[in-house]
Structures are given as C-alpha cells and as structure tokens.
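Example record for the data management plan.
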Amino acid sequence: MRNFVLKLGLAAVATSFTGPAAAATTTTTFQVDATVISTCSVSAADLAFGTYDPLAAQPVDTQTTVTVQCTLTTGYTVALSPGAGAGATVAARKMTRGLTTDTLGYSLYQDTTRAQVWGETGADLVSGTGTGVAQDHDVYGRIPAGQNVNPGGYSDTITVTVTF
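Corresponding structural encoding:
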C-alpha cells in the first residue's frame, strides 16, 4: 500500500509540472461588397374631372398626384405624355368619347395657377432628387369653358415616364 501511495504522489507531482496543451489557431479575412443601384418607382392616381357643363362660363379644375420614389441622391425627371386622344399635344390634350370622333379638350399643369404645362421635354418636365422615400408631385388639370361637345363619357390615358 505504501508503494501505491508513493506512485500516486509521484504522478500528482509529475502532472503539476506539465501545463495545459496549447491550442493551435489560424485566421484569414474576406471582403464583403455590394453595389447599390440607382432606381425609381412611380405610381399615379386617376384624375377625375367629374361633370362638365358646356354652357358654364368657368373651366373645370381638379388635381391628382404622381408619386415617385428613388434611391438617395438619384436625380430624376417626370414626363407626362400627350395622351391617346387623336391629334393631342401636351399643350392641347383631348379626351375622346367611346369609339366616336368626339373630343373634349383639357390640359395638365405643374402649378396651381395652371400656367406651366406638364409635358415630355425641357421646361415641361418636373424634376426631383431621390430621398429614399415617396415624393408626391401634384398634377393640376383643367377643362376650358365653352367647349361645344356632345353629351357622354369622355376619357384619355396618360403615360407617366420617370427618367433617372
């Protein structure tokens, strides 16, 4: 038994002089990257003039909104087409009545005074810079007074183009 205790003691002394085994490690690095693109989205609410009285002395005015959302600092322009009405221009748009040749003239503007037409080129465009959140642009519509037209429903389709 004495021999066993002596061996046990020597084993305890021997293990106290050997430290824990050192762990080996190695490292590396890698790059993380992404390219953020400039992009925009656009939506528009319908423009409803309601009823038009050809005998009234005043024009019919209304407005709607075009909403543009672009990435931060992305410059953009918003163009409105002349519409689908035959012979329409951005200065003289035309709604049509069904499949007939009947037309009802109207205009779309950038400002509340209805002085600056909203169209497809140059000063007729609305410009902006993206903020990352939706930005509203009001469209002001007017049907001039005194148009001698047939009764019925008139409509047109405008294409909104955002260039960025």
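Summary line stored alongside the record: The radius of gyration is 37 Å.
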